[in-house]
Fold this protein.
Amino acid sequence: MKKENTAPSENNKTTYSLNDDRRVKVLSPGALVAKRFFRNRLAVTGLVVLIAMFAFAFIGGMVSPYKQDQKFYRVDQQSKAYAGVVRNEEWRYTVADKDKFTGIVQAQAFLAITKNETAFSYDGVDYQLQKLADDFYAVHTGGQLIGIASKELVNSSTSNDKLSFEFTYDALLAKAQKGDSFVSEGKTYTVDEDGVVYDGTGAEVAYVSEYVVRAVMGDVFLTRRFKNELIDTLEAGRTDFVFTDDDGATAEYVLTYNAGTKSWDVMKETDTTVFDTYASPTKAHWLGTDRNGMDMLTRLMYGGRVSLIIGFIVVFIESLIGVIMGGISGYFGGWVDNLIMRIVDIFYCIPSMPVIIILGAAMDAANVESSLRMLYLMLILGFFGWAGVARLVRGQILSLREQEFMTATEACGISVRRRIFKHLIPNVIPQLIVTMTMGLGTTIILEATLSFLGLGVRFPFASWGNIINDVNNVFVLTHYWNIWIPAGVLLLMTVLAFNIVGDGLRDAFDPKMKR
Amino acid sequence: MRKYIIKRLLISVVILFFVAFIIYALMRCLPTSYVENMARQKSMQPGSKSFEEWMEQLTAAYNMDKGIILGFFGWMGNILKGNFGDSWRWTVPVVEKFHDTVWLSFVMGAISFALEILIAIPLGIVAATKQYSKADYTISVIALAGISLPTFFFASLLKLVFSVKLGWFDLYGLVGRSYDQLDFMGQLLDKAHHLVLPIITLVVVSMGSLMRYTRTNMLEVLNADYIRTARAKGLPEKKVIYHHAFRNTLIPLVTIIGGSLPGLFSGALITETLYSIPGIGFTSYESMVAGDIPFSMFYLVFSAILTLLGNLLADILYAVVDPRVRIA
């Protein structure tokens, strides 16, 4: 290589004579390349960006206080449907004899009540209506009480169980006739003006009310006290109340009127622990959290690590196969060259993107585990990418083979292996490094695209591509820019930096360049 | 020349044979989820045969009961007879679906390719003629940024700005909501309107490499001896660049442009998928993900043919455009 003359310094002038070789500063070819590279400001900027990116991805992950799949939670007030209230304005039928007081008879009874009749017949059977109070009728047939129709209901105060017909009838009758006490099924009960039924010991057993209160969940028993509070709120026209149950748990309840079903829905405001998804940037999470409640910044760091590692390994595989195949092909020529070049042609011709998509979909179908999937992805990408490298290496070697220095190595009797690896390959390396650097950028984009489509790196591993994948959800696209824009910018910057550095290297390796 | 073309065509056919075989083998190694799904669905129907029987019948119907090699020759025999089979995903003949989708992709590709040429070549020439100027740096960085820009990220940004914030375009699809009520002209405009963002995406993402290619070649030509001669004999700079230099730059440019013409038919897989444009790219993406072997096979072999055709075209054009090149 050429030597560069540098201006002799003061000391040198005195020590060495004018034609002393030591006055000439000799730079190795590598140092020359480095010198040319560092004179290119754009390339240096690219290098700095790359170093920053590596620091971010590899050191950042260690510095970050969070782990890549650490989930965060927040306490959220959630409204859960708790109960429903209907003010009863319909006739409710309580059946004593299931076979006789059928649905159709109930309908006939309803018609008779609205027409103010005291008897009706249906299907050849006569029924008598006995008015016991304003909204309370008993239906008899053949002297037997088969059921009652009323607008008020009797509910048990202690459980969700249905009360017996006799008890219901007696309690309604007692309330209607303002009778203080009544006897039902051999026990004595008292009923007060509000319709509360007490047993002999003074304990509340049931109550009569025109409101129907149901719990949404079957296993929840609504206490009498809660229902009272609820109905008081309802009658006062308020829409919310606070209730402390017997266990001392206080909760807020909100009532909303549902015009469609003419009922009130009671929502219980409860504190629920949920994943802290899509949180806005805060001091604890500089870029907020993602859809799984994981710290975005940490995910970005680990994602960068995955993207960069995949890029490097894929490019390494590509180059390894490419250099071996291209080297053999270029050096030996003849039928070996022909064969290998046809293989290269075939690989060049296979539409790699569709094939990789198909393989990704196949891995989906086979439920390949995430870490194994990453390995396969690298192998596949490497396997379909080596043809370009092989072509480049072969072309270089073909032209180098004819040069004088190769004839010289042959004349010196250097072994074939040494000739290839000591004399040919080193001369291919500059071109190779440039291609590899540019290839890194391309590979990272390819991996990101696959991950974006959901066919590359999978959860729980992060990659810049699968972080941006979230924009498929239009709500994220429009509202949570903090989720996908940083990942995209990092991706763009990394690939751009690789390309700029590759460009700079190409210029630096080329001795014909002016600078 | 003719001999060369015939030789190349023959080699291409051999390559194509192997490519098709590799693709076929790959497709056959996939878990045959589609056939299994279909067999399961059919066996669910009341009074139907059992799952195993359906499976047997379907694999036989799709030539999948034979080994890979026999199956491949069966498939190839059908292809040579012009029978490309029925798409599983779209339940129509493959050729019909292909015919329905390919022209949209071609129009989209052609428009963006034309725009790409119109933007990239002049900018590349400007960058080369003013090497190391501010304009050169700007253009180089833009070109590199275009190459480095991940399609999906750029498309998402465009959607955010133009569809969500400004509301100028729809997020997805080729036609708007009121498409059916429009007259012919309106329908055409509606489609054009929906193609704006995809075309911008395609142009920006792909023009970088053409720009750099133009710049590199122009620089090479500008360093040639005949340019020095032209300058030495006192020709105006304009004439030197646009008459002497540009014409020589055109040689590699025409070659590369001609070579990429067949590729216009293969569609833009990623861009079409991102915007849900029902071109050949998006359709085959859907088919591939669904495990639709007949359509995917067709598309893959079709793309392979286009690649081979492109290479051949580039080589022939090279000889045609540059009289110094003689091919044996």
